[in-house]
Amino acid sequence: MVLKTYDLGEADKILVLFTRESGRVSAVAKGSRKPKSKSAGGAQAFGHNVYLLHKGRNLDIVAQYEIVRQYRQIRGDLDRLAYASYAADLVFHTSHERDPAPEVFDLLVWILDTIEGGRNPEVAAHVFELRLMESLGYRPQLGRCVICGREVSGPARFSSEAGGMLCANCRQGAAGARQVSEGTLRSLRLLQDSDDAGWQSLGLAGEVLREVRAVLDDYITYRLEKRPASLEFLRSLNESK
Ligand SMILES: [Zn+2]
Fold first, then answer.
1. 161 and 141, same structural domain?
2. Ligand 1 centre from 185 Cα, in Å?
3. Residue 236: C-alpha distances to residues 39, 162, 239 (Å)
4. 118: Cβ–Cβ under 8 A, 6 or more apart, which residues?
């Protein structure tokens, strides 16, 4: 999967690939910016391709490629493009060179296929955030209080630092914990644990949508130790509607 591309010199591109077998790998696609280049198709963002790479002195070189899937709907639509860029950016920030994470690879294919298919990209992106965090070992605890283990219901507080919900007793003194309504808590749990049929029937709107966004934006920013630029762009796009 092509996560990012950078221009190199006059005619080449550096591709940052996320591979199922080897994790993140950077490679040069020579001549891919020349008009009528044969390698252009394998050098486009969000492509799913099979590559044959030659070992280079610094970076590997793309010798051949075969297209598995091109995401034409994503490339042709600003909204879908913004969600896909955010998903690719999250994988970029949480992956490492030559460190395989096949589960994350499969998740990335899943989210791009889902966005390409036109299903609600915002809800899908929240499912992706939760599944990605879980596969990295950062599943937020939404059912029980992270501190005392008591079941949490009704309006409650979410703490990114503590890694989940806080009950009424434990929230005292927890600075920065975010108040969420009962509906938001229910939606977050559904996003976290439902299969594809489950979340697709979930309609997020109004205050619940705003709270779900706020909780997950907070949590992702806390885990990445920065707010990704792609998330900033996505939110400014959301607000302009
Ligand atoms: Zn508690």
1. yes
2. 16
3. 34, 28, 5
4. 73, 80
Retrieve residue 53's tokens.
């790479």
Distance 218 CA to ligand 1 centre (A): 21
The parent domain of residue 84 ranges over: 72-239
How many domains is the chain partitioned into structurally? 2
Quote the ligand 1 centre to 100 CA distance (angstroms). 37
179 in the same domain as 61: no
Q: Which residues surround ligand 1, an ion (CB under 5 A)?
A: 145, 147-148, 150, 167, 170
On whether the pTM is more than 0.90, the answer is yes
Cα of 151 vs centre of ligand 1, distance in Å, is 8
Q: How confident is the prediction along the chain (241 residues), in pLDDT tens digits per residue?
A: 999 999 999 999 999 999 999 999 999 999 888 888 877 888 888 899 999 999 988 899 999 999 999 999 999 999 999 999 999 999 999 999 999 999 999 999 999 999 999 878 999 999 999 999 999 999 999 999 999 999 998 889 999 999 999 998 888 877 789 999 999 999 999 999 999 989 988 888 999 999 999 999 999 999 999 999 999 999 999 988 7
For ligand 1, the distance from its centroid to the CA atom of residue 146, given in whole angstroms, is: 7
**DSSP category for residue 177:** P
Determine how β-strand 178-180 pairs with β-strand 156-159.
antiparallel
What is the whole-number distance in angstroms between the Cα of residue 139 and the centre of ligand 1?
18
